Amino acid sequence: MGDVYHNRYSVVGKLGWGTYSTVWLCWDLKDMRYKALKIVRSAYDGTVTALNEIKMLKCANHHYNVVQLLDDFTISGVNGTHICMVFEVLGYNLLKLINESGCKGLPMAQVKIIMKQVLEGLDYLHTKCGIIHADIKPENICVDANDFSVITDLGNACWANRRYANTIQSRPYRCPEVVLGVNYNEKADVWSAACVAFELATGDYLFPIVNMCVDECYEHSDDENHLCSIVKLLGLIPEELAMRSENYSLYFSSDGRHKGFSDLTFYGIYNVLTDKYKWSKLDAWKFEDFLRPMLAIDPKCRSDARHCLRHSWFRF
To answer: How far apart are CA 19 and CA 38, in angstroms?
Structure first.
């Protein structure tokens, strides 16, 4: 406490920490206001991630629904060189908001405001910056002092025309093309956003990853269970998408049939909302109508963020 970095940022207290970094609340001696200082561990992986994040943030530094990088610099410590990033101090993230609701879901009016702002941020990242966020989830969306929802943590982001990793996204928000090992694009973020919308509205994951196999002697892999969960809610994996999968033989037979999927009972989002959460038929229909274009299993058929913003769900 009391340390001053870059001759400017005086440490007041710790805000949080993660695998590769610690975030400190600081008083900016120049601007005379509080800032958040993220100090990255000197480990190689942390440094590479931080350098990537800075590149993305400098490109995406002009939208109020995407976190703004205010400053960056390096410091030397006993363990090596640390990359530092300075941000505005943001409030709680959406996961905290969900937890404070007792995991019962937020009022629909609030969900609509949040999702509109998230989609506006994604549209900016996708169309103006050419960036895939690659890790949209409640923990990575914060609320600022003006109650704007702000997309944060671009450490896993990539350029749409130059992807760095085959596997992206946290498991509950992972799109089917990534699970199948098929090339992905910006619409991977749209899938994740739909999962976030459902979680905000209900307090639960849209695709809980549990063992779907009735045979207790056999346990599916997480990928198999994930695909089963998707099939139960949205229907069978389109053959054209399946054929592009590098893991085709794991999930599909030579004649194109889904191994272990054909005996699953299709349930649908509408039925989940009315049966499990006791939504009215009208509210369930409207919400499902908003989500389904975002959850097209084949990304070629999935709506982009801008198209989602035009949906009538936001107006009613």
So the answer is: 12
Q: For 273-302, how does the pLDDT look when each residue is reduced to its tens digit (9 = 90+)? A: 999 999 999 999 999 999 999 999 999 999
Q: How far is CA 263 from CA 220, 238, 245, 252, 298, in A?
A: 15, 16, 22, 14, 21
Adjacent-strand bridge partners of 132: 158
Last residue of some domain: 88, 118, 137?
A: 88
Whether residues 277 and 208 fall in one domain: yes
Domain boundary among 39, 67, 88: 88
Which CATH number goes with the domain that contains 25?
Answer: 3.30.200.20
At 52, which helix (H) or strand (E)? helix 44-59
Question: Do the Cβ atoms of 34 and 12 come closer than 8 Å?
Answer: yes
In which domain, by residue range, is 23 found? 3-88
Question: What residues are annotated to the active site?
Answer: 135
Confirm whether pTM is higher than 0.90. yes
